[in-house]
Amino acid sequence: MELKKRPLLTAGQIRKKVEEIAQRISADYAGRDLLLIAVLKGSLIFASDLMRRLTVPSSVDFIRARSYCQTHSQGRCDFLLLPEQPVTGRHVLVIEDIIDTGLTARCIVDYLAAQNPASLEICTLLDKPARRNVQIHLRYVGFAIDNEFVVGYGMDYEEQGRNRPDIHVLLGD
Ligand code: IMP
């Protein structure tokens, strides 16, 4: 069934933004090796586009977590996949598709921080600041968006829409 949606960001706008972010990261991390930790599944397209534009030596690993809201500002999360590479002493950049409540990113950052990386930052393509439940510092943000549900460019609604090259807002009935 085709879902009702409204265009939000074109493939061209996304490409331009990814290039801008890649230039900032490459400048900020010049002279250092980066370990990118891509958060599955949503960031797979963003991470693969971004890493091909970085000019600093970069390796990539993956993490997958599912968060559950317990109270307004507290969450718990289960890790479904953990990085293979040790993060201790590495310059780690977590790559997210979207930060919504912030709970998933908070869990991931807390898990990685416990292993003493040399540095630890977050890069997200989209940010929904209106939905934030927990405090989290985002070093790189592509676009801040309204409180709407989006699909495309890796992001899904019930596993549909990840393969679209652009981003749409999903509309209710
Ligand atoms: P959190 O609320 O910040 O923990 O977001 C958890 C995850 O929910 C994100 O990493 C996304 O995978 C997913 N998510 C949140 N908002 C959207 C959306 O608008 N579209 C698709 N996935 C979303």
What brief labels describe this structure?
Rossmann fold; alpha/beta; globular; 173 residues; 23% helix; binds inosinic acid; 3 helices
Please sum up the structure shown:
The protein has helices at residues 11-28, 44-53, 103-113, and strands at 5-9, 34-39, 58-69, 75-81, 91-99, 119-127, 140-144, 150-151, 167-170. It is of the alpha/beta class.
Structure description:
The protein contains 3 helices and 9 strands, in the order E-H-E-H-E-E-E-H-E-E-E-E. The protein has 173 residues and is α/β, with parallel strands linked by helices. The chain has helices spanning 11-28, 44-53, 103-113, and strands spanning 5-9, 34-39, 58-69, 75-81, 91-99, 119-127, 140-144, 150-151, 167-170. The chain has a single domain (5-170), classed as Rossmann fold, CATH 3.40.50.2020. The structure holds inosinic acid. Inosinic acid is lined by residues 42, 67, 96-105, 149-150, 155.
Number of strands: 9
Run of helices and strands:
EHEHEEEHEEEE
**Low-pLDDT segments, ≥5 res:** none
Class in CATH?
Alpha Beta
> Count of helices?
3
What's the CATH topology name?
Rossmann fold
The small-molecule ligands in this entry are: inosinic acid
Strand content: 25-35%
Q: Identify the overall geometry.
A: globular
Strand line-up in the sheet with most strands: 4-3-2-5-6-7
The overall pLDDT, averaged over residues, is 94
CA radius of gyration = 16 Å
The biggest sheet amounts to: 6 strands, mixed
Helix coverage percent? 10-25%
Integer count of domains: 1
Give me the secondary-structure category.
alpha/beta
By CATH, the architecture is named 3-Layer(aba) Sandwich
Distance from N terminus to C terminus (CA atoms, Å) equals: 13 Å
